[in-house]
Amino acid sequence: MNEEHEFNIRQIQRALRILHKSGEDIPVVFEDGIFGEETEKAVLAFQKLNNLTQNGIVDYDTWVLLMENANRYIMENAEPFPIFPYVSDEENSVLPEEEGKAIWFLQAMLIAIAEKYSGINGVELNGKNDGPTKNAVKYIHEKSGGEKTDGSLTKKTWNSVARLFNAI
Question: What average pLDDT score do residues 67-95 get?
Fold first, then answer.
């Protein structure tokens, strides 16, 4: 058996295994690269569930639908992609009364934190390090043991806010 053929069998087995885990009525298959009785039974079950010709052969139509269904399940059940809005001090340091992309994310975190903790008031989503945003940053940074700050967005203030946000 050549490597390409074995790889395709493993792909089939992996897709069948994913669909088994998704709750579809497909027998469990182990990824061993061998198209044996276990794999054939799972292919037959998949074909039956999807109104395909039930012959246990992975033809073009079976292959395409099997891969589409497995990929759809993976995408629907994958962990959310993380984002990293604070890239570097150079790009994201924002002084009081300045505007910056990272401030939008900072303000969203501050608004969420304000629902759980007092001391943060009046923060609005506007992208500007205005009075309420600056005061909230100062409050959190100082309460988390940081030195006094003027409310500028720096890596230290970002980390203080992000730690508290992650804690809630």
Answer: 85
Angle at 25 between CA 52 and CA 18, to 5 degrees: 90
Task: Return d(Cα 55, Cα 38) in angstroms, integer.
Answer: 14
* Alpha-carbon gap, residue 81 to 75, rounded angstroms: 11
Torsion sign (Cα): 113, 115, 119, 123: positive
pLDDT band at residue 1 under the 50/70/90 scheme: very low
**Helices 3-21 & 60-77 angle (0-180, nearest 10):** 50
Domains in the chain, CATH or no CATH each: 3-77 (1.10.101), 89-167 (1.10.101.10)
Question: Is 126:65 a contact under the CB 8 Å cutoff?
Answer: no
> Using CA atoms, how far apart are residues 167 and 109, in angstroms rounded to an integer?
11
Residue 89 CB partners (closer than 8 Å, separation 6+): 154, 155
